[in-house]
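Our consortium's second objective concerns turning raw sequence data into structural hypotheses that experimental partners can test. To show how far this objective has progressed, the report includes one record in full. It was chosen at random from the queue rather than selected for favorable results. The single chain below, 276 residues long, was entered without modification.
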Amino acid sequence: MSLSLRNLRYFCAAYEERSTVGAARACHVTQPAVSAAIAQLEQELGVRLFLRQQRGLAPTPAAQRLYRLGGKLLADTQAIAASFRDTADNPRLALRLLPSLDPASARRLLRQWRQQMPRLELSVVGPEEPADVELTSSRCATDGTSFVPLWEESYVLAVPEDHPLAVQEQVGLVDLHGVAFIERTHCEMHAAWQAAMGRGEVLPQVRARVTDEEWALSLVSAGVGVTIAPLHAAVQREGVVLRTDVAELQPYRRSIGLAYHPPATAVLDALLPDPG
């Protein structure tokens, strides 16, 4: 049995997007092509890879195993092809990512870069390492860098679905007084929320302090407490209700974009759309 690399690529995209429509968009093919690839893999392997649910695809244990193995195979295939190319003039970028970024939006941007510039040597660096480019918010851009905005995000109050604030007719920051709260200490707006609540003498009960987006929303879903987060973080998350009507949060928006030093200008000019 010989598995098709194309089918594996479509499967991995569906696994990451949790949707055949999203996978088709990411792979620039039709949705039936993705569905057919998944069906063929299921027939060849004799397993069920996804359960179709109202909110998208739910991967089975077999899909998790195939994603690990297939993803490595696809990466090895790309590495083999790259090893035969002349890399002397390959453009390079060292990229730093803001911890509170939307992973799906960042993934789409990086895929787009790979398609536009296949020979781009991209490395993702840690917070203390030098970077040519930062995918970050305008508030967190390093001093002395130029900033190109890409998208905006609003903030919402995320509450467990069985929490009283999930059904309360109107919600304000004052309603967080004495309420179990999850602090997202990695968010650049963390200090702003503390200051706003302090001015109103609002003292929530901090039940957890986290530095990871996934943990913050997982704790909300588990009923540990509520949190204030960018809208992307909790979209379509089971067990979480989003309150987008909190008046004090509505003025707050953050601009996500690229902060870069002059040496990266030429590469970014080739990757970013012409603003005109």
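The partners drew two points from this record. The two ends are 51 Å apart (CA to CA). The chain has a mean pLDDT of 85. Both points have been shared with the crystallography group to help prioritize constructs.
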